[in-house]
Amino acid sequence: MELRKIKNWNVLLYYIGILAVIIGVILLLPLSILPFYKNEMNFAISFICPSLVCIILGVVLVRIFKCDTNKNLSVGEDAVIVVSAWILATVFSAIPFMISQNLNFTQAYFESVSGWTTTGLSVIDVESTPHIFLIYRSIMQFFGGVGIVLVMVSALSSTFGMKLYNSEGHSDKILPNLIKSSRMILSIYLGYVIAGTALYVITGMPIFDAINHSIAALSTGGFSTKLESIGFYDNVYIELITIILMILGTISFATHVLLVKGRFKEILKIGEIRFMFLILGIAIPLITFVSLKDLYGGLYKGCRVALFEIVSALSTTGFSTVGYNNWPPFAMFIMIILMITGGGAGSTSGGIKLYRVYLMMKQLVWNIKSKFLPEHFVKKHYVYKAEGKVIINKDDVIEIYNYICAYIVIFVLGVATMLAYKYPLHEAMFEFSSALGTVGLSVGITSPTAPSLILWVEIIGMLLGRLEIWVIFIAIFKIAKKAITK
Fold it and tell me: Where exactly are the transmembrane stretches of this chain (predicted)?
């Protein structure tokens, strides 16, 4: 029994070591822009030092704990690997901000977590931030969106690839071969980034801004190079390109595979895709006519603002074209609901996820219909996902209700903490729904002067939202159990 425990720890530390090496390499990527911004060469050491430490740590772990990876992971060990990798990534990624941007650990860690979780909330002044740190934030969002595990699997053959992939918040099934699937996903996303960058440049955006916004929109991250976000450009074509990229970011990886194969009929069958467009079709005219038409002096401007902001909220991207300080309560309430709902399951977006809310609504309809059926009548219920028709059983529904319940409890606790600091209720709800849903929209609570406890509450919310709650809880329970039984 003791031997098995040691072997299991070997497997855990071996895979954590591999992921540490990958994180170290990612930390070096911002250096690629230095030939174009030679005056920022002095910032190189801020990335090289944590990168080398991370790579050395990873190599040591891989060499010391090299083991037979054909052994099966026990329940919860996949969660430990994934959570450990994310902690490593966010901690080491905070160091460059501390070295060169004079942020304290809380601020630096907040910025790092916001990047990796593709949230987009920020405590730095982007107007005075060097280019190397702006591209660094976008790089974090790209790899945080597709997932560290997916990057590892694309480079290496992994016995535990699917288990780790699922533990990182992806439930979709893509291709039988996960390695080919992961490489295809990375290729698709890089293609989107290149296409988005080109379109931005054509419509007048500087190339550096175009690269950053293309990555941030696709990863549903929302980090901008401008304080006014997309609103800085006041360009309807730039807004439309951003909307397309945000929608692409909010559909699942498996749906992207169907998209590049031209299987559009299958995409239109997918339940959560239909549900997404239903929500957009209701929310956009509703907010436009009830709240924004008069606020922005006309139907065109009100509809334009509503379209962009609603897509940004539902996709959990966090880009904006306007401020929210003068928005009426009804519009703010709808935005909060959209941020809590979130984007597609198996995508880069956050929130409860469209699939869960969609299935909850379907279950309500099924329950009502069942009241009018014969007493012993049995009917199988199903929904369409990217992989085809999926039969829904009672356990699936219970799992979704449990997740939504846990999400709401965490949301209430986060809002309560902000209320204790005397923030108004609507602002506290908006800000924490943005953090927990990994959205990035803000009414001003998140700032360099925000209390440390508020930033840490948002940090916890962002991590729970990105890794989908249970993974973190399972990892903590597993580590505690091993420590007690050691």
Answer: 12-37, 43-65, 77-99, 142-165, 186-208, 236-260, 272-292, 330-352, 400-421, 453-477
Q: How far is CA 24 from the centre of its chain?
A: 21
Cβ proximity of 342 and 349 under 8 Å:
yes
Residues 6+ apart with CB under 8 A from 126: 134, 224, 225, 226, 227
* Owning domain of residue 414: 392-485
Overall number of domains in the chain: 1
143 lies in some domain: no
Task: Return the CATH number at 437.
Answer: 1.10.287
Handedness of CA 369, 371, 377, 382 (dihedral sign): positive
DSSP bridge partners of 388: 385
* Each residue's pLDDT expressed in tens, for the chain with a length of 486 residues: 343 444 567 778 888 898 899 999 999 999 999 999 999 999 999 999 999 999 999 999 988 887 655 556 666 777 888 888 899 999 999 999 999 988 999 999 999 999 999 999 999 999 999 999 999 999 999 998 887 666 655 555 454 455 555 555 555 555 555 667 677 788 888 999 999 999 999 999 999 999 999 999 999 999 999 999 999 999 999 999 999 999 999 988 888 888 888 888 889 899 999 999 999 999 999 999 999 998 998 899 999 999 999 999 999 999 999 999 899 999 999 999 999 999 888 787 889 999 999 999 998 888 888 777 776 666 788 888 887 888 888 888 899 999 999 999 999 999 999 999 999 999 999 999 999 999 999 999 999 999 999 999 999 999 999 888 888 888 888 777 766 665
What one-letter code names the amino acid at 146? V
Residues 5-11: contacts with CB under 8 Å, at least 24 apart: 5/482, 5/486, 7/67, 7/68, 7/71, 8/71, 8/73, 8/74, 8/77, 9/65, 9/482, 10/65, 10/66, 10/67, 11/65, 11/67, 11/69, 11/71, 11/73, 11/77
150 within 8 A of 168, measured Cβ to Cβ: yes
Domain assignment of residue 165, yes or no: no
CA distance 459 to 286: 33
Query: Terminal CA-to-CA distance of the chain, rounded, Å?
Result: 11
